[in-house]
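TICKET #2291
ISSUE: user wants both folds in one file
ATTACHMENT 1:
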Amino acid sequence: REKLQISSLDFRLLIMAGVLVVMALAFHAATGNFLTPENLYNIAQQSAVVGIVAAAIGLVIVARQIDLSVGSVLATVGVAIAWLMYSHGWHWVSASLVGLVLCMAVYLYQGWLTAYLGVASFVVTLGGLVSFRGIAFLFASGRTQPITDPTFLLIGGGLDGKPERHRQDAPDRVPRRLDVEFKGSAGQNRGQEAQDRVGVGN
């Protein structure tokens, strides 16, 4: 009986893997770019956070509980780390450690409410879902907190999935774009001046 259960589990995993391969081939046939190294790198990078969170939430579900606040807590911790690095000049290591401690404190508190006070996890995490969104907003005062540390960007793969190209090309992109916009606006101003002179002559 145990062998049958193991074989059925392996069969289900084989089916899911086959469906994944078929989907990848279908997307590549439709777009021609799905199985390129850069796109696969981006998919792995974007799936990393979801995979880590899903592994933790799996333990919560096994315990017959639920966590509705995981997205809000993730956003709050991320904003807190960016806020410490950008607005206060913290090193990315110390800011990340503070984010880890903050995340542990949040879930120890929510777990205490559920395990010791007997409040339903649905109610506790629903409150966290709403409240931590506001906390993230208060951390940043409603302003964008960009990541500028090159090492931290390298760990995350950069803004465009190519950290080296991003670091080399980023300083050149802005001046060229500003130069184009300046030339365009200057040309428009000269055209307007010419029209005004024609109007005055008439």
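ATTACHMENT 2:
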Amino acid sequence: SPSSLESFLGTLLSYIGAFIVNIYVACYMVEYVESGNIKVESSKVWARVKSSVAPLIVSGILYTLAVAAGFMLCLVPGIIIAVYWVFYTYAYVAHEPGITDCLTSSYYLVKESWWVTFGYLLLFGIGVMIIQLLFMMPSYLYFVGEMLQIPFLTSEIYQYVSASISNLGNLFVSPVMSIGLGVMYYSLRTEVYGIDVDATID
């Protein structure tokens, strides 16, 4: 139906938007650290974004397939892979290695701190999930409206509004998650490679 198609397109666009925002945030943080300046030039950030989008799509597909395969074999391998390779976006943006090299770089970064990284991701992920659920509440109320036969909650206008709120929530949560990953990424780099981010900025 047209409404289903519009809902699908809206969701698809929100995920594409979230993907671009995610990369932009990573590029901004990397540029901020490497420039040694508080002022970051937008043109340089967008240049990084343009050069990173295509490779990160491929890396993202490899990451998703590997994690999915791990989950299908058993839950634990999927979690292990997801944590080891979680920083592939930052690894690529910061160093622009090969498509698979950024996954390897993330692995070596996490190797000695897997449990710490897992704990951080778990706690941070729970917080982000709670925020995302708040944005999705209007969509859940639609199903409540169907069950209880409440006209307002099942109206087309309410469907559009609730879908829009949910999609906006996705766009909001994505950069929050990306910033959290960036903080952890540079924290691990400082620990593993002795790169002091504060000193670099100063």
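RESOLUTION: both attachments delivered.
EXTRA DETAIL ON ATTACHMENT 2: Confidence is low (pLDDT under 50) at residues 198-202.
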